[in-house]
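User: Can you predict the 3D structure for this chain?
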Amino acid sequence: MCTVRTRRLPLLLRKTLRLASGHPTLLVEEELINTGPSDVEAMWGHHIAFGAPFLREGCRVTLPDGISVIPHDTAINPPDRRVSPGGAWDWPRVPAQHGGSVDLSVIPGRGAASDIVYLAGFGERAWYEITDPALRLGLRVGWDGGVLPYLWLWQESGATAGYPWWGQAQVTGLEPFSSYPTSGLAAAAANGTALRLPGYAQRELSVEITVVDEKAQ
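Assistant: Here is the predicted structure, written as structure tokens:
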């Protein structure tokens, strides 16, 4: 078990990781506790990111039906971005920044514009899969959609030439979260998505990460 107390909010987080011999699933169980009498607002999430050697152009992201795409308000690496502002759009094909459309379910090649969008519409048991069709190998991530109802899709494919990536990052983040946007808690409180914890309240969360091996099926 791992524990941490946050510095700016009266929160205690406990995390237990379980991996059983012979089973391809990592189980992460968490408890978030408000240790004080006052109500607090927070953002709770998992920064799950994929890179080399697994991630490459053409990998696929699969989601449940009925997911909507909420673009970030502004470009995270101005002036370019992949997705046109506005929305919400229906997953996976959405309007592109410079006309036409972009299929967010397909990992782009190096040099694609940086962007982050927020995915909504998951059920109580949310999930996604990211797989390499050529290797027929990937991961399935499942979590409590009632606690973390959003999934952040962040992509940096070498387009950011300056700080902090210096043109070296080839990363896709698929990050279950209680709230959005990435701008921080004040913005999440303003749009009504911040997680609210009454005094001394506790929330529980489980995340399951399973290897998907289509060759073994």
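The radius of gyration is 18 Å. The first helix runs from residue 185 to 191.
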